[in-house]
Amino acid sequence: MSNIGSYEEKYKSFNWKDSEKELEYGKDGMYNIGYYCSDRICEKGFGQKIAMIWEGFTGEVKKYTYDDIRIYSNCFAKFLQDIGVNPGDRICVFMDKIPELYISFLGVLKMGGIVQPLFSAFGEEALFTRLDNAKTKAIFTTRKHLGKVRRIRKTLPEMTKIIVLDAGEKPLENDELSFDMAKMPKVDKFDIFKASPETPSVLHYTSGTTGTPKGALHVHSSIISQYITAKWVLDIRPDDIYWCTADPGWVTGTSYGIIGAWANGVTQTVLDAGFNVSHWYDFIDKYKVTVWYSAPTAIRMLMKEGDAPVKAHNLSSLRHLISVGEPLNAEAVVWSEKVFGKPFLDSYWQTETGSIMISNFPGMKVKPGSMGKAVPGITAIVVDPKTYEPITKPGLVGLVALKPGWPSMFRTYWQNKATYDGKFKNGWYICGDRSSIDAEGYFWFVGRDDDVINTAGHLVGPFEIESALLEHEAVAESAAVGKPDPINMEVVKAFIALKPGFEKSSDLEMSIMNFIRKKLSPLAMPQEIEFVASLPKTRSGKIMRRLLRAQEWGEEIGDISTLEND
Amino acid sequence: MADDMKKLITDYVKREYLDEDSDQEIDENTPLISSGIVDSFSMVSLKTFLEKKFEIKIPDDKATPQAFDTVNNIIKLVGEFKKGV
Predicted ipTM? Predict the structure, then answer.
């Protein structure tokens, strides 16, 4: 029997108060996520239970009990206090998937800071944009990424604290600080910041069609949503060995790779290594993973390698498989059921929602290719793209819309309330995705409603790429669009018009690709570049990106009446 | 020839994939993909480099993380498609 039992019954009778009560949220005036993910589990008598088994790419293994997580996160919280970081300050954690990333995340929350996790593969421009927008006060990083931080810190006057995990013997520069977690004095008792349910907790950056990336601000009470969805959708149980493959630089990695997992007191595993099919299966086999939360891109890469590697491993421990990031295609659902004996169940949500909104649930009839049904506590519909009125006829495509009010809903975009307000129409939060709903209430994803590129489950903003492209010496103008990709759903394709004096060549193509990869991130790097004489524009001079996108997807070009006559 | 290729690829990886301030050493057996030095997205630019430099075409199904995981693996992969190496 799954944790949720009957989905229909839970959906009908659901009340957020019941979830709060189950989590004992607010007991003794405590609302801080940091407490619920470590101290509370210890107080329940599970201090010696393993909270995290971490394995690095060399095979090195580290294990941490819940008591270790509690003490080390206290330690980082106290360190931040001691160096003058205050509640409400933004503290960025910028490192690979190492244990200190997970633990410092809780440490920041425990001292009342707003934790700003950033993907460690970000280049210095992507890093700068997000730190500058958040006016980040402190950054916690490692030697591997310190160079990027050093090169931009002079242009970030508010960022006064640079904390280095693995400083070692090599001297640090200027006022950089060393925090070697393993060598710091243990802090058994720490006065956890008395957050309210509405105190800001996590600031995750996400991309839109226009402008710079936006910081979705979450609050401590988000844990109520994350706790109950981890329990009901991921079906996490006390004896599970859970593996969330997401990086905490992105929202899945924090909502379900830290908060949802540890609020439920489960043992989770972390593999800090590049993707490798047999390494992944070895990992599941070695640690007897029971619940696996992964992404369609990874599943399709596993699928590409076929059934033989699966058969070469003992994967019988797997009990429940869930997917997130971009729509999971029907073929992958069918394949996973064939080779693992159970299907990957798709789940749908986004950075702004903080937790899963629509999903296939254990015990529910699986319709391969469907996103599933609304999570209990969530009212989800599709609305007309022009009037924003609800569409009630099954099968008609509209915009996915959610009735605001669940605990993990973002509270604003950092310093950008106008954009936040613009996401609400007729009292609905508009997700920006197109979908239909069938007669049985299942959602079927159709596509994005804007130009944002979803590559391997990560949203990449075309504006950010185009702005960076213009910094390349050879680029006169550019447009970045998503093009279909069998593994990553979409990859970035750039259309580029060159400045006079530059000729197209494979050398130039590589130079531009590497330029973007280093400046922004590997995700933002164009996988293909098409050199063009000029880009299609409206009469007012705006590049018609949608025309190029439609061309890539083989779609109808639509209204081109405003196209400039060359 | 093999030594030239080794140096060419190793230098390229150092220059393009390591941070400019990094003092990390790379040799022909250093894991590139599994260590995260080169991620699956960046493999595209590495593949383009190899194809251009050695005038070959590497099919997508041969461009696996395993095939790109070390400079030695890459040399072997290039050898499959380039005559006389």
Answer: 0.87
